């Protein structure tokens, strides 16, 4: 049997009807949906490449939009956490430093993924016809599939622990679910 008491207690701290929380959920779900739809549309039509004059310019533009949307998502996530109560039992140094360590590992995965793939490799260049010479198998891809997604999820998990935020933990679950769906869609 599963003991649901901890989950019930966690949900007691989260107001899922709060406008900020809803906006955070929507921004989390929107991002991978947006970039996958736009990338597939570009792959089929080459419309962005035509508008921007080259696949590289179009890819850099889409990458910039994705970065801005990620900043908006992170802001919404943070604001939703700040507007909801903390879990008093977690508001200790050990939780903060555990969260900091998890965020650091996530940041390592995100940055090393970006360095291994480059800008166009990170931001869907293959949909623009910008292909890498060979598949990247070096770190972090040697230890984890989709390290950019799971590194980003770890950053949000760490951030939630650092703030002792049940709302942040629930939003992190939304991030993980969104990325799981994106991986299935992209695969």
UniProtKB/TrEMBL annotation:
The chain crosses the membrane at residues 20-39, 94-119, 167-185. It comes from the Eukaryota. Gene3D superfamilies: 1.20.120.1630. Keywords: Endoplasmic reticulum, Lipid biosynthesis, Lipid metabolism, Membrane, Methyltransferase, Mitochondrion, Phospholipid biosynthesis, Phospholipid metabolism, S-adenosyl-L-methionine, Transferase, Transmembrane, Transmembrane helix. GO terms for biological process: methylation; phosphatidylcholine biosynthetic process. It is found in: Endoplasmic reticulum membrane. PROSITE patterns: SAM_PEMT_PEM2. Pathway: Phospholipid metabolism; phosphatidylcholine biosynthesis; Lipid metabolism. One of its GO terms (cellular component) is endoplasmic reticulum membrane. Its EC number is 2.1.1.17, 2.1.1.71. It is a multi-pass membrane protein. GO terms for molecular function: phosphatidyl-N-methylethanolamine N-methyltransferase activity; phosphatidylethanolamine N-methyltransferase activity. Pfam families: PEMT (PF04191). It is an enzyme of class 2 (transferase). InterPro entries: PEMT/MFAP, Phopholipid_MeTrfase. It catalyses: 1,2-di-(9Z-octadecenoyl)-sn-glycero-3-phospho-N,N-dimethylethanolamine + S-adenosyl-L-methionine = 1,2-di-(9Z-octadecenoyl)-sn-glycero-3-phosphocholine + S-adenosyl-L-homocysteine + H(+); 1-hexadecanoyl-2-(4Z,7Z,10Z,13Z,16Z,19Z-docosahexaenoyl)-sn-glycero-3-phospho-N-methylethanolamine + S-adenosyl-L-methionine = 1-hexadecanoyl-2-(4Z,7Z,10Z,13Z,16Z,19Z-docosahexaenoyl)-sn-glycero-3-phospho-N,N-dimethylethanolamine + S-adenosyl-L-homocysteine + H(+); 1,2-di-(9Z,12Z-octadecadienoyl)-sn-glycero-3-phosphoethanolamine + S-adenosyl-L-methionine = 1,2-di-(9Z,12Z-octadecadienoyl)-sn-glycero-3-phospho-N-methylethanolamine + S-adenosyl-L-homocysteine + H(+); 1,2-di-(9Z,12Z-octadecadienoyl)-sn-glycero-3-phospho-N,N-dimethylethanolamine + S-adenosyl-L-methionine = 1,2-di-(9Z,12Z-octadecadienoyl)-sn-glycero-3-phosphocholine + S-adenosyl-L-homocysteine + H(+). This is Phosphatidylethanolamine N-methyltransferase. It comes from Falcunculus frontatus. The gene is Pemt.
